[in-house]
Amino acid sequence: MDLATLLGLVVGWASVGAGAILKGGKPEYYISIPAFLLVFGGTLGATMVSYSLKQILDLPRVTLRAFFHRPPDVLGTMNRLIRFADRARREGLLSLEGELREGDDPFLTKGVRLVVDGTDSAVVREILETEIELMEERHRVGEGIYSTMAGFAPTLGIIGTVISLINMMQKLDDPSKLGHMLAAAFIATLYGVALANLVFLPLSNKLRARSQEEALLRQIVTEGVLAIQAGENPRLVEEKLRAFLPPALRAKVGREAAMQEGTARSPGAATVGAR
Q1: Has this prediction a pTM greater than 0.90?
Q2: Residue 71 in contact with residue 188, Cβ under 8 Å?
Q3: Is CB count within 10 Å lower at the N or C end of the chain?
Q4: What is the pLDDT of residues 67-98, one digit of tens each?
Q5: What is d(CA 93, CA 91) in angstroms, rounded to the nearest whole number?
């Protein structure tokens, strides 16, 4: 589970709630079911107009990715690709079939199988890059829905406030209630802005980050598979893949591969990667 998502939402809402109470407010001042229905229901309805019903119904499943997520094993995948390169150089590309295991990353498996089957490198790149583009396109839907909701929610909040003000203007004959009615009128705006900035935008950003992580891993796999197919030296493959990582992690690439292959790597490689 991604605790950052859960804790972020809890801390955000708790901070706003605590701040409101410390400023002299009471919880009941900020509770209005009609205002919530108007803002949330209106936002959902406007968003449904923008997307298909299937995409809206799929939103709960997409949302779970923001809370439950296994980080991509970038280092592990890189080390596997380096071992593949070493084995392919020593025993040929066909030997890689024995390296594939049940439950492997389907994208990595597809790339290696294309190489083992002797597919042209340009075709391999086209197939894998198309897969990445389609994956990003699918992920953009969930991210876009929350981004759209973040755009509609404040506007629906303003609409709710205007409706409340209109209702208030019809009851000016009772000045004793004007203060309470005026305060209640702004609750809808509060709900709209809070939902946009404490729920919808953060979830959209988190889903975008998830998509970028997966896309990066697939780009690494694509470059690694093509380097293996080209018969490049494992050390060169290693250096190519290290370029995808921040400097602090580059020295770790290749260590696991060397340990599993039982071969000692020269200290010069780690020094180059750490720079």
Answers
A1: no
A2: no
A3: C
A4: 888 888 888 888 899 999 999 888 888 888 88
A5: 7
Identity of the amino acid at 242: R
Closest by alpha carbon to 10, among 64, 59, 67, 58? 67
265-270 contacts, C-beta under 8 A, 24 or more apart: 269/235, 269/238
